[in-house]
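Need a sequence for this fold. Nothing fancy.
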């Protein structure tokens, strides 16, 4: 049964804007400059982590003015009880990763279990180097490993329920141009 559209609209109307559309765009520009400095000339294979990484990937890769190969993967934690190394792979990488430089793009590093497991898997498949980039690093101490960070981060935001710029609220508002925190969360 679909959600009540009024509830979905109300979530955005009442949300706190933590990053405006302009702040998100500036963060993506900074990310592009940093990724270019790191990976230009390395012929990277860039993976979008579906579905959250879709918006970031679409906006970011057009700003990377060097040759790269783009693909996607879809992996999610199988359930809240499982450790970060166990994933439910919806779509695994189909490319030969041996000797490749890989960049993984995702929307947010919250606890980081999924990203850590994806990076580990790509290394196990023979990638020469695996880099990660996220639009948002959520500030809290509950990371998969203490001090865990992506290699490239656009914004650091508070520990709230976030949506917009690729992150969703009950499957909606990935398309919201800024980043919002759900009222009361």
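Here you go.
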């Amino acid at each position: 049964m679909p959600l009540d559209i009024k509830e979905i609209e109300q979530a955005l109307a009442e949300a706190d804007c933590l990053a405006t559309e302009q702040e998100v765009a500036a963060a993506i520009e900074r990310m592009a400059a940093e990724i270019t400095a790191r990976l230009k000339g390395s012929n990277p294979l860039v993976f979008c982590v579906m579905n959250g990484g879709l918006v970031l990937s679409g906006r970011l890769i057009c700003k990377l003015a060097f040759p790269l190969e783009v693909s996607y993967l879809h992996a999610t934690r199988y359930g809240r009880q499982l450790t970060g190394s166990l994933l439910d792979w919806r779509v695994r990488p189909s490319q030969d990763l041996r000797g490749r430089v890989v960049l993984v793009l995702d929307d947010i590093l919250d606890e980081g279990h999924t990203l850590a497991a994806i990076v580990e898997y790509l290394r196990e498949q023979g990638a020469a180097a695996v880099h990660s980039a996220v639009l948002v690093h959520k500030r809290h101490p509950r990371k998969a490993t203490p001090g865990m960070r992506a290699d490239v981060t656009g914004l650091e935001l508070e520990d709230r329920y976030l949506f917009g710029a690729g992150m969703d609220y009950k499957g909606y508002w990935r398309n919201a141009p800024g980043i919002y925190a759900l009222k009361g969360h």
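For context: Helices lie at 5-14, 21-39, 53-61, 113-124.
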